[in-house]
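Pilot study result, target chain (254 residues):
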Amino acid sequence: MVTTRSASKAPSTPAPAHSGGSRKSGGTTASSSRAGSVSRASAGSSSPSSSRGPAPWAHAPSRLTLLWLAVSLPLVTWDSAYVLLRPWSMEGGSLHWPLWVPYRLYGEVDHIYGWKAFHAHTGFTAAQSLLNVLETAFYLAYLWIYLASSSSPSSSSDATPRARALAGRPAAIAVLVAFSAAVMTLSKTVLYWLNEYFSGFDNIGHNPPRDLVLLWIIPNGLWLVFPTYLIYVLGGEIVEGLTAASTAVSVKSE
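Predicted structure:
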């Protein structure tokens, strides 16, 4: 009886332990193998994102920028044409009516636009108008680059159209051109004001305070406010682009 029980246990006891142990170790090996493959896959999938550089730099003008350009460019073109076509564009000239009739009043408010400066051969009026032509060309080049090279980014999860934007070299050129034009506009306008100050307000000092504020300070002040806004916005974008570029270079060097 003892021999039979021990004989019956001998083959049966090791067998479950052996087969169970092989299955257990095999399962452990398989699970560890799967875990290793998952960790390697996750590491492989996270590696490109971790090595990916900063988001590409892009530019899109604000609505205020586009509104200002839509208002200012026709006005500056109108003003420059009046100055450069004098005396035909002035009162009594063949081109005065109807396009430049308002300058009859403005020439009395600001003598630099009137007969006084023209007869005195004051060169500042025409000189600043030539700079106006150059600035206008810069702004038009900026708009042309934006309209010709921008695209509307679309997302597969969002069908809502997004604002057109520039990217890459066209974005850099457009921002640089617009920034340069804004600096020119602000500098020329400041010079225009300083010219009056250092000449003892020779061209506008005859106006009563109300007319001076409504017809000279407010209209000319707009060309101080909005170019300053453009310089602030576009200058900030230039700094962001240079910062992103320098960061990408340092990451590559590492």
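One observation from the pilot: The radius of gyration is 37 Å. A full batch analysis is planned for the follow-on phase.
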